[in-house]
Design a protein that fits this description.
The structure holds 2 protein chains of 2 kinds. Chain A has 3 domains: 110 residues, Butyryl-Coa Dehydrogenase, subunit A, domain 1, CATH 1.10.540; 85 residues, Butyryl-CoA Dehydrogenase, subunit A, domain 2 (Beta Barrel), CATH 2.40.110; 145 residues, Butyryl-CoA Dehydrogenase, subunit A, domain 3. In chain A, 53% of the residues lie in helices and 14% in strands. In chain A, strands 1-4-5-8 form a 4-stranded mixed beta sheet, with helices on one face. The longest helix of chain A is centred in the middle third of the chain and has 33 residues. Chain A starts with 6 loop residues before the first helix and ends in an 8-residue tail after the last helix. Chain B is of the alpha+beta class. Chain B folds into 3 domains: 84 residues, no CATH class; 107 residues, Butyryl-CoA Dehydrogenase, subunit A, domain 2 (Beta Barrel); 148 residues, Butyryl-CoA Dehydrogenase, subunit A, domain 3. In chain B, strands 1-4-5-8 form a 4-stranded mixed beta sheet. In chain B, strands 2-3-7-6 form a 4-stranded antiparallel beta sheet, with no helix packed on it. In chain B, strands 9-10 form a two-stranded antiparallel sheet. Classes of the chains: A alpha+beta, B alpha+beta. Chains A and B meet through helix 7, strand 10, helix 8, helix 9 and helix 12 of A and helix 8, helix 9 and helix 12 of B. Bound molecules: flavin-adenine dinucleotide (FAD). The site of flavin-adenine dinucleotide (FAD) has 20 residues of chain B, from strand 1, strand 3, helix 11 and helix 12.
Amino acid sequence: MDFGLSQEQQMLAESVARLLRELCPLNHVRNVVESESAVSAQAEAALAELGLNGLVVPEAYGGLGLGMLDAAVVATALGEAVAPVPFAGRKVLAPLALIEAGSDAQKANWLPRIASGGVCFGVGLQGLVTRRDGSGVSCADGRLTGLALFVLDCEEADHFLVADDNGQLYIILAQSEGVEQIALRTIDATRSICGLRLSSVPAEALRDDGGKAAQRIIAAGRILLAADSLGAADAMIAQAVAYAGQREQFGRVIGSFQAVKHMCAEMAARNEPCRSLVWYAAHAFDAVPEEAPLMACHAKSHLGETGRIIARTATEVHGGMGFTDLLGLHYWFKRIGFDRQILGGPETVREEAALLQGWIARAA
Amino acid sequence: MDLSYNPEYESFRDEVRGFITANRHLAPKGAGRASRPSPESVVWQKLLIRHGYTARTIPREYGGFGADPDILKSRIIAEEFAHAGVPGGLANQGISMLVPTLLELGTEEQKRRWIEPTLAGDVVWCQGYSEPGAGSDLASLKTSARIENGEFVINGQKIWTSTAKEADMIFCLVRTEGDAAKHRGISYLIFSMQTPGIEVRPLKTMTGNAEFNEIFFTDVRVPIDQIVGQRGQGWFVANATLGHERGMLGDPDALENRLLALIDLMRQEQVDGHRVIDLPAFRDRLGSLQAEVAAMKYNGMRVLSSQIKGEPGGMAKLIVKLQACELAHQISALAIDALGELGLLYHGSPHERAHGSWQWNYMFQLGLIIGGGTAQIQKNIISERGLNMPREPRLASQGER
Ligand SMILES: Cc1cc2nc3c(=O)[nH]c(=O)nc-3n(C[C@H](O)[C@H](O)[C@H](O)COP(=O)(O)OP(=O)(O)OC[C@H]3O[C@@H](n4cnc5c(N)ncnc54)[C@H](O)[C@@H]3O)c2cc1C
């Protein structure tokens, strides 16, 4: 019995964090997003060097063959650095979809290219969680029509993994006729999100398993968003504590005022159990799959709530400085805000948890 | 992450389950809130000790089971008893706080005399620390003990003392070195509650019961060898055990059991022909608490793993008392809200649910948020020890803290 990260996982976390400290400090993040991009080429290249494109791709297909906890650990490091790196969708959910629902031929075709960075996916699953503004995708004669909103990791995507309204998964080519990309600009400039208007787009279907794989991929996405939020919250707490140790008012550092100390203590006390929850949810995804959907909901909703409190409290600790663009604290604030809403905000996800446990019946 | 147990532990778990199945008919019913264990509880306690399911690592010569420390086995025992809904070993202040203190700092004579009957539930203790003028700032306590003819002579007052009315014995902090600095003038004494000069006055609490008391000492004479540790070291002796108390207040199994009871309640209770759980606002709150309980459960496993490896628990451990007590309180709060006006019923009223225990818990858990180091004191500790933030600057007039 050992609840925690393995040595290898700690090393993975540390090497990603070190690399990001070096190649992706805040001023670099700023430069990237100010050039209207959500992809740091230098961070991407270095992470590819570490093998992150194939993080979850089985070794037989040229990947590292690692699991969800490894992916979560990476997501936490990325969140901590507010790194503009397409990770959850492109590097984890897309290959997982193929692993879960691809035929042998499809795996052999796609997985090695994902691992080598030869293909880049965007991932559109939001419609299976919430449908708004007329979103919805249907399939007829192997062609997709409809609107997919909040597609993850769109920048530089040459392919999209898209679900239809029944949870069936498809791969489409970004350049296909009938694909119109709608650039969506969220508060979080470090993530690239788009909408896809699809008009009779030829699509390669993955195995029809009644939407099971799609639900599993959504669970994975929730765990990774929670893990990202955890890292962003860690960074905000650390910055608040550091700032409170320097800034002086009334002749003393503000970190010696109890009101400020208690804000920091509350953030830490709320945040720390979140770490274990994220780790367990990620562990369950691989080792206790029957628990994974519920644990993913718990992690997503609880980290969403905790993240929001930490984001505002850490900002408050910085006073007016926290509110400025100058300090850049808002990058973390917005990252946490993004993680909270995508693939279901806390209320939505808790409702799903209630259904999963049979607290209530699914509406017919 | 390896959450499997090796075969030795799996078979240990089977053993514990076997014991529970074979013996659960002997377990005391409604162990409840009685502060003095019932005769059935004492019989049960002794049976558990004989089988090593409580007092497991305490040496045999002191009345324990004498097993080598094995945190995982202790955890398995706790888990299995909790899951079976069968009371485990007694967990009163004598067992949780005094026994570890004596084991660590008591004389051989003190260990032999007090540990066994305490474990067995035959001797009940109370904790005489807080005073009217010394709560969070415990080290400013004033109850004094002067030395006269080879005896301590104690005068002063304690307050908020749980179980003082039922207790046989007290472990008590008193000021013996009047001229020493505040933390260095305290001694840790143990003596009988029957000693002449002790008066206990029950204090009725908000729950309507008298869960704690005031104690008045007038020339209470205690033999000089009834001190644990040296004179003036009482603060450090007491601190050796405060950690044990905080551990006792953050039990993840207890949280999980309360949550399960709440889920049952919300599935059963009906309002306007709907189950409470069918009402979205209540269901949403339940979902929030469930996620938080899960987080605390895995946080507990993480702390446990670091203990097994002999590593310090760090932040994960520092936050347990604060978070777990608050969460327990929130669970009771939701139960009361789910019951609405029925949640008000108390005192054995018609239509009352669960003997009014949700209300009792809601109130008592607020007491636990205050007792054993208030929430604010916990935040001081988290910020200072966990986040290395500066201590409050001392006022010039205040002297040593
Ligand atoms: C149910 C219950 C059982 C108890 N059982 C026992 C027992 O068996 N034996 C025993 O000795 N004691 C017992 N206590 C006493 C308990 O330990 C004290 O109540 C507790 O330490 C707080 O002290 P106080 O009541 O004097 O409050 P105070 O210390 O006066 O606190 C009042 C308020 O001021 C705040 N405060 C105080 N100091 C600070 C600070 N430095 N920074 C920020 N805020 C501060 C507190 O957080 C609190 O909100 C029990 C209490 C309860 C509620």
